[in-house]
Specification:
With about 160 residues, the protein is of the alpha+beta class. About 40% of the residues lie in helices and about 25% in strands.
Length: about 160
C-alpha cells in the first residue's frame, strides 16, 4: 500500500515537472512579446491653443517621429509651424503669416503604443524574471516530490 502511495506521489511529481517544461515555451514567447510594440493610430482635433501653448496628446507613449499636424486640412511644417515633444504639440505663433489662425481647425495624427506596452527597462526585466521563475518553481516542486517519493521507496 505504501509503495502505491509512493508511486502516485512520484507520478504527481513527474506531472508537475512536465507542466513546468511545457510552460517554458509560452513563457519564452511572452518574454519576446514584451519588446514588440503594436503602434496604434490616433487622429486628434483641437482648437487654437494661443501663445505657443502646448496641447497634450490624448494618449501616452506617443512615437514623436510619427506626429503630423494639419491646419484647415493643410499639412503644417515641423519646426516651422509646430514643435513636438513626448507630451504634446505646440503650434508656433511665428508661423501665422496669413489668415486668422484662431479660426483654423487643427488636427494632429500620430502613432502611439498600446496600454499593455511596458516602456521602462527595469520593469521589463522584472517581468521577465517573474515569468521565468514561475515555470522553474513548478518544476522544482515536481523534483522535490519525486525525491521525496524515492526516499520512501524500498528497493
Amino acid at each position: 500500500m505504501e509503495q502505491e502511495d509512493n508511486l502516485k506521489l512520484m507520478l504527481g511529481g513527474f506531472i508537475a515537472i512536465l507542466v513546468g517544461v511545457v510552460l517554458l515555451g509560452p513563457i519564452a514567447d511572452s518574454i519576446a512579446a514584451l519588446d514588440v510594440t503594436v503602434p496604434l493610430l490616433n487622429n486628434q482635433s483641437f482648437a487654437w491653443p494661443e501663445n505657443n501653448t502646448r496641447v497634450a496628446f490624448d494618449d501616452n507613449d506617443v512615437i514623436t517621429s510619427t506626429v503630423v499636424a494639419y491646419a484647415n486640412n493643410t499639412k503644417m511644417g515641423l519646426t516651422t509651424n509646430y514643435s513636438v515633444d513626448g507630451i504634446g504639440i505646440t503650434i508656433l505663433n511665428r508661423s501665422a503669416g496669413t489668415g486668422e489662425w484662431d479660426l483654423f481647425v487643427y488636427n494632429v495624427s500620430y502613432t502611439h503604443e498600446g496600454n499593455e506596452y511596458v516602456a521602462d527597462k527595469n520593469s521589463k526585466t522584472l517581468l521577465n524574471i517573474t515569468i521565468i521563475f514561475f515555470a522553474i518553481g513548478i518544476m522544482a516542486v515536481g523534483v522535490l516530490i519525486v525525491i521525496k517519493a524515492f526516499d520512501k521507496m524500498d528497493f
